[in-house]
């Protein structure tokens, strides 16, 4: 009896040590099965709620993949974009580039449902990464990419930090690539992830300066197709209305595909930052390659979005697992 108890304790100690070692090995790394033991239903819950919500809101994919991008580029993928403003510290979501970030309510619903089955286990940053994947994948019969998990949530969100981290629609190629490089992303990631603009819409203010008196001679931006500029002037009169939006990939803004690269090569990218992708030889080559091959876009996007989803992540004991995605834990 005594022997047996001792043996059990010995096994227990060995197990704990091994678990400890496993944890140490996992620190700083994301993994595909992170919640396999601690919250096996998490992925399914996200999937079901997103399936439900995309039926009534087919633009949710655009909303959420953009939200993930904004999250990852400011303080890493730590769900800082989800935090509400507290006291006098204005949160990221209130910053100028916030324009039209939405879908926060969907993340809240998912969080509530997951907290019910496994409280304090699944981070908001992971929920956002899964939700974005599932919403973009909704029109397809399978998930378009795998999502690594194990991110922890940050405790700070500052509107001022969107400056210099989120790219401007007026940026030239040099600025864009500098920004992406600083996040560990290369020119291929820049061009591939820009392909996300195959879905969604943009407000007139983000590009209308290209339509009216661009160089001071009453003209439009010469890097924009003149016929298309004319059509856009009809959609975005001057002075503009702050509520009008235009599809970034006209007539197919709900279908996630490589069509964006057709648009780009026809000089119909809405932003100056999109025209900029054609000003660099290497970047232009990648645009052309992706335009020619529909099948290469999907694996390329999967690879780059995996990199984006791992930017400056908090893992192990860093940060926390928020109970409510809008506020840090009390
Ligand atoms: C390369 C630099 C980028 C710039 C300058 C840029 C800029 C913008 C701007 C100005 C808008 C319009 C916002 C509005 O008026 O409401 C927009 C929309 C969008 N962006 Fe980007 N973006 C970039 C990269 C990305 C990346 C990497 C992703 C995701 C992987 C992304 C996904 C989206 C989506 C899906 C929308 C549409 C959102 C909606 O319809 O609600 N963008 N982007
Ligand atoms: C979506 O969820 C709502 C609210 O929970 C529910 O009433 C509705 O039946 C669901 N719709 C689908 C298509 O699952
Ligand atoms: C907000 O301000 C109050 C009073 O100054 C302070 O006690 C509290 O910690 C602050 N909350 C956060 C999240 O900074
Ligand atoms: C916020 O700022 C205002 C004015 O600057 C100040 O009166 C107020 O006490 C501040 N509140 C907190 C919680 O810091
Ligand atoms: C975006 O930020 C501006 C301030 O820069 C604020 O006035 C506006 O309400 C914000 N929009 C949203 C949707 O949060
Ligand atoms: C690109 O934009 C940056 C920032 O606006 C500017 O400093 C730089 O001179 C521009 N580069 C080129 C090549 O136009
Ligand atoms: C266009 O810009 C130039 C230079 O800034 C200015 O002199 C001119 O009045 C503008 N024209 C119109 C129609 O706004």
UniProtKB/TrEMBL annotation:
Function field? Removal of H(2)O(2), oxidation of toxic reductants, biosynthesis and degradation of lignin, suberization, auxin catabolism, response to environmental stresses such as wounding, pathogen attack and oxidative stress. These functions might be dependent on each isozyme/isoform in each plant tissue.
Q: Which residues bind substrate?
A: 167
Q: Which gene is this protein's source?
A: LOC107915918
Taxonomic lineage? Eukaryota, Viridiplantae, Streptophyta, Embryophyta, Tracheophyta
Catalytic class of the enzyme: oxidoreductase
What family does the entry list? Belongs to the peroxidase family. Classical plant (class III) peroxidase subfamily. Belongs to the peroxidase family. Ascorbate peroxidase subfamily.
Protein name, please?
Peroxidase
All disulfide bonds of the chain are 39-118, 72-77, 124-325, 204-236
Q: Kindly give the Pfam families that the UniProt entry links to this protein.
A: peroxidase
Which residues of this UniProt protein bind Ca(2+) 2? 198, 249, 257
């Amino acid at each position: 009896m005594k022997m047996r108890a001792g043996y059990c304790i010995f096994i227990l100690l060995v197990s704990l040590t091994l678990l400890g070692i496993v944890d140490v090995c996992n620190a700083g790394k994301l993994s595909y099965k992170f919640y396999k033991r601690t919250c096996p239903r998490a992925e399914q819950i996200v999937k079901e709620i997103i399936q439900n919500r995309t039926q009534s809101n087919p633009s949710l994919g655009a909303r959420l993949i953009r939200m993930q991008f904004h999250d990852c580029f400011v303080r890493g993928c730590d769900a800082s974009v989800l935090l509400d403003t507290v006291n006098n510290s204005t949160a990221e979501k209130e910053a100028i580039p916030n324009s039209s970030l939405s879908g926060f309510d969907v993340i809240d619903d998912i969080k509530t449902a997951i907290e019910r089955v496994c409280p304090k286990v699944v981070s908001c940053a992971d929920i956002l990464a899964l939700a974005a994947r599932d919403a973009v994948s909704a029109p397809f019969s399978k998930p378009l990419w795998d999502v690594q998990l194990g991110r922890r949530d940050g405790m700070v969100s500052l509107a001022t930090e969107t400056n210099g981290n989120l790219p401007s629609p007026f940026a030239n190629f040099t600025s864009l690539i500098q920004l992406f490089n600083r996040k560990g992303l290369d020119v291929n990631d820049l061009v591939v992830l820009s392909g996300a603009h195959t879905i969604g819409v943009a407000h007139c203010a983000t590009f209308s300066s290209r339509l009216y008196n661009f160089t001071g001679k009453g003209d439009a931006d010469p890097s924009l197709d003149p016929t298309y500029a004319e059509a856009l002037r009809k959609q975005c009169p001057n002075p503009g209305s702050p509520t009008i939006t235009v599809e970034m990939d006209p007539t197919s803004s709900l279908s996630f595909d490589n069509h964006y690269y057709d648009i780009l090569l026809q000089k119909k990218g809405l932003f100056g930052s999109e025209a900029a992708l054609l000003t660099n030889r290497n970047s232009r080559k990648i645009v052309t390659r992706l335009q020619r091959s529909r099948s290469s876009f999907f694996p390329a996007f999967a690879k780059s979005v995996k990199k984006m989803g791992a930017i400056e992540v908090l893992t192990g004991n860093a940060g926390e697992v928020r109970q409510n995605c809008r506020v840090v834990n009390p």
